[in-house]
Design a protein that fits this description.
The protein is of the alpha+beta class. Helices cover about 35% and strands about 15% of the residues.
């Protein structure tokens, strides 16, 4: 790997950490811990490579998250993208994405239409029928852990 590519990778980690720190103040680049970004409630693998190897990224994440039990996803800076981390791609297993989608859209009983999408008058977030930013879904932590463990060992099928 050339020095330029190596430094681009390090810079990408810093850009992603800065972006995530807008929501999780302690987010910073981790060196030697295995996790690219530390002080987060999830595991992020940051890549800034010319080659696209999503299976390798997912395997690397699964090796770490199968032990920690954390949600893991990859952030990928594609060639030609600048330093706006909000524009980077993310890669996540569908099995890990589904519970997040249920938290966000589980309150919907039918397919929303364009008329259902609105802006919250309190915070300005886009919402469908109710604002989950101002009024987030409360998850019972022991139940969520039980579902995650059961799902991992194959005893339930979501």
């Amino acid at each position: 790997m050339t020095q330029h590519r190596k430094h681009r990778g390090f810079r990408t980690e810093r850009v992603v950490a800065e972006y995530l720190s807008t929501q999780w103040q302690g987010a910073c680049v981790g060196r030697g811990s295995g996790k690219d970004i530390v002080n987060l409630p999830f595991d992020v693998e940051v890549k800034a490579r010319a080659g696209f190897q999503p299976l390798a990224y997912l395997k690397q994440l699964k090796a770490r998250t199968s032990t920690s039990g954390e949600l893991g996803f990859g952030v990928i800076r594609l060639n030609g993208q600048g330093e706006d981390a909000a524009e980077y791609c993310a890669i996540i297993r569908l099995a890990d994405l589904l519970p997040l989608l249920i938290l966000k859209y589980g309150h919907l009983t039918s397919e929303p239409t364009e008329a259902d999408i609105d802006r919250c008058s309190s915070c300005g977030s886009y919402m469908i029928r109710k604002c989950l930013t101002c009024h987030p879904t409360i998850t019972n932590v022991p139940d969520a852990i039980l579902v995650k463990k059961s799902n991992m060992d194959g005893t339930i099928d979501l």
